[in-house]
Amino acid sequence: MPSIPTFKLNTGHSIPAIGMGCWMGQPGAGLDQEILSSLAEALRAGYRHIDTANMYQNEREVGQVIRESGIPREEIFLTTKLNPKMYHDVVGGFEGSLRDLGLDYVDLYLLHWPQGIRASDERPYGDKEGDIGPTFNQIWAEMEKLLETHKGKVRAIGVSNYMPRNLNKLLKTAKVVPAVNQIENHPYLPEEELVELCREHGIHVTAYSPLGQGNSPFFSDADIKAIAEAHKTTVASVVLSWLVKRGISAVPKSANKDRMRQNLSLVELSDAEVERILDISRNDPQRHTHLLPGIVKDGKIGGWTLDQLGWDVGFNLPELKLQPSSKDPAASSGKGVPQAIKDFLDRFYRVSDTPDVHGEYAEHFVDDASRLHFQIGPMDATTSREGIVAWRENGWKGVTRRKHVVNGVFISPEQQSVIMLDGTVEMDKEGKTVKFNWAGRMAFDDESVERGQPLIETYKVWLSPA
Ligand SMILES: NC(=O)c1ccc[n+]([C@@H]2O[C@H](COP(=O)([O-])OP(=O)(O)OC[C@H]3O[C@@H](n4cnc5c(N)ncnc54)[C@H](OP(=O)(O)O)[C@@H]3O)[C@@H](O)[C@H]2O)c1
């Protein structure tokens, strides 16, 4: 069993430095089986810290795994979070979670976000008195009462997603200092000022999405890879070790037997290595960024602007980079794809997301009607560059921004001129942000690939709203 360091909370209780994240990407049906088996496996691997939330819709399964594990309850540190739709009824929210978990107590109960959401019309609570709903200062006062009214059932209370501005505002009226602030934290978002503020107030920091949700750009970051090579370990292990060395616990999610074990094997980084990783975002704005664009809708998160949330940096996502997929090593994304095609895709999607360059975009395709087949979503296929230009002129009407992200590129060893693609596209159109998932098939002209200047013969894309 690996030995996992612990940190002391301001309540006197200990929290294991690495926990298992239980957000399975989306709530709901089908994921209950995955959480049952992967969490049971995690406990067997030695995890003793579990992070869930009412919003993840799996408290029942999480509780069941803990109860059936045979591990004494005292040995497991369990965090869950109040659903922002229950901020008007903290007691009801807490009791509902405890009932679903089927446990006697939770170790840590967090306010999931500063902003509540009114369940009746999905409108966000405001950030000052007189706005919709109670303020977070008032909600925190209700959380504090739980420690008395539900003594023994909740051991510590804390917050999540509180940046310095909102944390300072909360501390002005708080009678109980939060035990924990759970925040997005990884090499591209070290939040140094916030971590220091929490330290000054005795608030422990837990990092969520510590691996940038897996397929993230820092997995191919030269600085981090160099440190991983020096320690003969993985990027994930370096990142988690770096967080722990900074006094931060982390809750990486993995449903994979090997990766969940890998995430428990920490290495001892030198102070210079810790600084080298901190220097990345200090010195390079391209590598200083939040990494969860999926949680933003119409420029807001849960109805609040990034400014209301106190974010001092948004999404400076680096240029498209092809990442190996962590999901399925057998069919790894990017594996075996010739460099000429990777470079081509990098250029192609950059041009694709640039307005007005319709002719340049069309030049990525063969100029031969007998071989060209271009079809995006429900459009009728076109077989000419002119047809592509006309489609693009039309498609860009009213669009002010468009961003493709390629999550996966797959190639067959037998058919090197055909690739399958998987990605998302987000665009701002007439004041609204819309997002699609897409899958694509791209076939190249063989000779052009050999020349190192690939031209597309077939490009067919299937779309579904994200
Ligand atoms: N408080 C909040 O508002 C908030 C927000 C987001 C998340 N969270 C919490 O934080 C937890 C973790 O965050 P997250 O799930 O968003 O992202 P994450 O833990 O940074 O990344 C999870 C992804 O990384 C992959 N992965 C895991 N270990 C890996 C390794 N060693 N090498 C390569 N890939 C690896 C996983 O795939 P496999 O499963 O296939 O290994 C999964 O796709 C959540 O589950 C949740 O409990 C809290």
Automatic annotation (TrEMBL):
It holds the Pfam family Aldo_ket_red. The keyword NADP applies. GO terms for molecular function: oxidoreductase activity, acting on the CH-OH group of donors, NAD or NADP as acceptor. PROSITE patterns: ALDOKETO_REDUCTASE_1, ALDOKETO_REDUCTASE_3. The keyword rRNA-binding does not apply. Gene3D superfamilies: 3.10.450.50, NADP-dependent oxidoreductase domain. CDD domains: AKR_AKR1-5-like. Coiled coil: none annotated. Keywords: NADP, Oxidoreductase. It comes from the Eukaryota. Residues 18-279 form the NADP-dependent oxidoreductase domain. Belongs to the aldo/keto reductase family. This is Related to GCY1 - galactose-induced protein of aldo/keto reductase family.
